[in-house]
């Protein structure tokens, strides 16, 4: 057995190690084993091919678990051609082969498993066997999906102990305590949002792919440097109107636990009705904007026209009613269907000129950035998905806290750059003072009115970003005013540091958790096999629809058997 170097007298730590070695040898050299005798003290096997004389015998040494090869007889005459569906390449063997790879890459696909096994051993195995091995391997490393739900109540208790002030709850349904919903918001996130972040909350969800599926709902914000700031997240058995109403109710409770008065908020989402209704009910004084990234991707997907996307963004950024109408008219010229489609989204929810709230320059949600944190972990049990976010939060808070401690500027780097760019442009402007607060700023292209009392400029950039625009910088510096004093507090380095001033403490190992109550997984589970895909046939799309014709009344739209003409006539006669 040249590749594995198995020889007479060779010793192995125990019978299990020997069995693994002989199995590896059989797979690598493409012959099938037929086990004659296998127990705790002896092992006898031969080649499964009829007439092949190869045979091996191993025994356990006295007073020790060690196994040794006693005899190795004959050479293979079978041709060693067991390459398709090798019997020794069992699911357990594949699990041992892929375990380390799975630890490094959760998304190690079955087709990659097939490729790697063929490359290393020269054998092919069924796709289904590789899929089962991956499922079993993930369970061996990360635990079962059922255990994940059972651990949730204990995990919530640990969060409350290690991170006092956090809001963590698990909700069940039915007499058998089936999982329904889970919500968590760390105290560090609540403190950072209320004391340093922009008062903007992005909402969204992402499907999980574990055995029992579910949806991860998230609420994120922006720090003063434009970074994603996770505020709260939860898992629901099903995303619908009720689940979003519940999620925003829990979010409101969490915020009210940490402050006496919730500040005026702006919400960003994909505009789905369930989110819009929940925001209106639970945060009635807030403003709700539609994510422009979602809107532009939708119009691009539906109409396949990059010109429409460009015009949509220009309409969104228009700073005058006239400019907005011009861009909308251009959209109508390019595609009347696109203009009709856009009517389902009121301009007051996405266009700058019509939006009542403040977005601080953020037209798009950052939920997509947050979802990347768990994109690779969606196949894992629910407790592992939550712990991934927990660990990532701990790392990010520490990293950003450390990084911001070295800043020497008054504002965050991105805000400071905006001021510096404004100073560069302002040096070429002419400033005329009208009164104590109003100025006319003249550039080569245009003239703008700046009002330092209302912190506004006719270009609208100051109102949009809440950072003085180049015209405002020109007006303020010409009369020796401090530009930083006219910048919203959210963009200061001090506010940024306050965002991450509290630590997200890790939870102890699950072995130290005490299980307080039993939570069963939801009844719904992922159907077996590959998910179905709806495929559209181009020929069917272009084909004219068949018109149904009735032979009784000569009308279209129904058959003879469903014709109601006789019924109507008899009713009239009666």
From TrEMBL:
The keyword Protease does not apply. Coiled coil: none annotated. Keywords: Metal-binding, Zinc, Zinc-finger. The keyword Plastid does not apply. InterPro entries: MULE_transposase_dom, Transposase_MuDR, Znf_PMZ, Znf_SWIM. It comes from the Eukaryota. Residues 439-480 form the SWIM-type domain. This is SWIM-type domain-containing protein.
